Amino acid sequence: MSTTASGQSGTWRNWGGNVVARPAREVTPASVEELAAAVRRAAEDGLKVKAVGTGHSFTAIAATDGVLIRPQLLTGIRTIDRDAMTVTVEAGTPLKRLNLALAREGLSLTNMGDIMEQTVSGATSTGTHGTGRESASIAAQIRGLELVTADGSVLTCSEKGTEEERAVFAAARIGLGALGIVTAITFAVEPLFLLTAREEPMPFDRVLAEFDQLWAENEHFEFYWFPHTGNTNTKRNNRSAGPEKPIGQLTGWFEDEFLSNGVFQVANWVGRAAPATIPAIAQISSRALSARTYTDIPYKVFTSPRRVRFVEMEYAVPREALGDTLRELKAMVDRSNLRVSFPVEVRTAPADDITLSTASGRDSAYVAVHMFKGTPYQAYFTAAERIFTAHEGRPHWGKVHTRDAAYFAEAYPRFGEFTALRDRLDPDRRFQNDYLRRVLGA
Q: H or E segment at 34?
C-alpha cells in the first residue's frame, strides 16, 4: 500500500484523506533551475505556488489552487562531508531513502520521528520530531539550507552566514513553506550506532507518577496510553555497545505487522461500525503487546510501519505541565460519550532555538490524539484542544488544529521575527494559501 498522497485527475489528496486540493497545474522539476523557472512563471501568471511532499500533513499546509510543485525528481544525496560530519540531501528525498543511504555509509541522524515516509523538506518544514531528553526534532539537526525565494532566486543560509542568512536559517528550518521552497538540506550526522529498545506495559498512574525519573534516566522515552483503560505501553531507547539483537523476522511480523497493523486495522473497522465495542477492544489491545527488548541501528528502532490510516492532532505543552494535561484528558474521555480506538502518544523534546519550533525556548512534552480515518473526530479533537490550549499548548504545524495568528503571536515570543522575515522574502505572498493566511495572518 502506498502512503503517498494521490493525484488522479488533477485532484490532490493528503494521506489522511481529510484535505483535497485542485491545483491549476502541477510541475515536477528535475533541477533547482527548473524549480526557480516554475516560480517565476507562476508570478507572471499571477498564481500562488506550493510544494508538496508525501502528503503526511493533516492540515492544508501544502494545498493550493495555483501551481503545485512535486519534488520527487529532486532526490538523493549531493555530498557527504566526513570532516564536518554533515550530509547534503535534495529536498524531495524520502526520509526512508536517506536513512538507508546513510546506514550504507556507516552514518545516521541522531534522532528521528516514528515514521519515515515523509520527504526531508516536508518533515522539517512542519517540525516533525521523535522523542529525546537531549536530542531534538529533525529540523534541529539542520546545519544549512538552500531555498528558492519568491523572485526565483536561490538563497543559501546557515548558522555561520551573514546576519541576514542567520536570520533566515533561524526561521527557515521550520519554515511552513512560507519563506520559499526548500531545495536542499544539510544535516549533521554521526557514525552509525546501536540502540537498545525496551518496550513494556505500565499502568497509566505509575507512568505519570514516575515520569520525571523515566525521562531523566533514558535518552529517548515515550509511551502510549489506551483511552478507556488505565494501561500504557512504554518504550525506552538508549545507546548500546551491542551486540546487535534485532527482532526476529517472525516475531517482528507478528507484533509489528499482524498485531500493530493487521489486527489493529480490523479492530478499528469493528469500532467504526459499532462504537460501543471500542472500550472492550481497547482493554484487549492494551494487553496484546507484551514486553520485549531488542538492539538495532537507529532507524530500525526509532521508526515503525504505520499502515492503519488516521487523522491526528498533536500539541506541545511545557514539559512540567504534562501530568496535569494527561489527567485532564483521561478525565474528559472517561466522563464523555466519546469512543476512542487509537492510543494517545506521548513524547518529549528539549528546548531549541528555531523561531517557530513547537519546542522553541522551552522543554516540551507532546501529546498526540488520533482517530481512525473515516470516523468523526471533531468532538474528541475539540475537547482535547481545549485542554491543550489551557496549558499554553503549541500545535504541530502539520496536524489538525484550529489556532490562528492571534494565538500564535502569544504562544511564540519570536512570532513577529518570523512574519517580518516573510514580509522581506515574500512581500507578494507568492507562497501563501488559506492555511498560512490563518496561522501567520494576511
A: helix 32-44
Task: With cut-offs at 50, 70 and 90, classify the pLDDT of residue 3.
Answer: very low
The rounded distance, in Å, linking the Cα atoms of 195 and 301 is 7
pLDDT at 113 over 80: yes
pLDDT attached to residue 365: 98
Angle formed at CA 165 by CA 120 and CA 86, multiple of 5 degrees: 45
Instruction: Tell me how far CA of residue 97 lies from CA of 104, 145, 185, 202, 422, in angstroms.
Output: 11, 19, 14, 34, 31
Structure confidence at residue 374 as a pLDDT band (50, 70, 90) = confident
In whole angstroms, give the CA distance from residue 15 to residue 5.
5
Question: Quick one: DSSP state of residue 119?
Answer: B
Rounded CA-CA distance 432/318 in Å is: 30
Q: What is the largest CA-CA distance in the chain?
A: 61
Residue 374 exposure: Cα atoms within 13 Å on the Cβ side: 10
Cβ–Cβ < 8 Å for 58, 399 = yes
Residue 256 has pLDDT above 90, yes or no: no
d(CA 197, CA 221) in angstroms, rounded, equals: 10
Q: Is the pTM of this model over 0.85?
A: yes
HSE on the CB side for 357, CA within 13 Å?
30
Average pLDDT value for residue range 169-197: 98
In this prediction, residue 250 carries a pLDDT of 65
- Size of the chain in residues: 442
Collapsing DSSP to helix, strand or coil, 340 comes out as coil
Burial of 191 (0-12, 13-18, 19+ CB in 10 A): exposed
Cα separation, 82 vs 211, in Å, equals: 38
CA dist 413 and 277 (Å) reads: 45
Cell of 233: 505501553
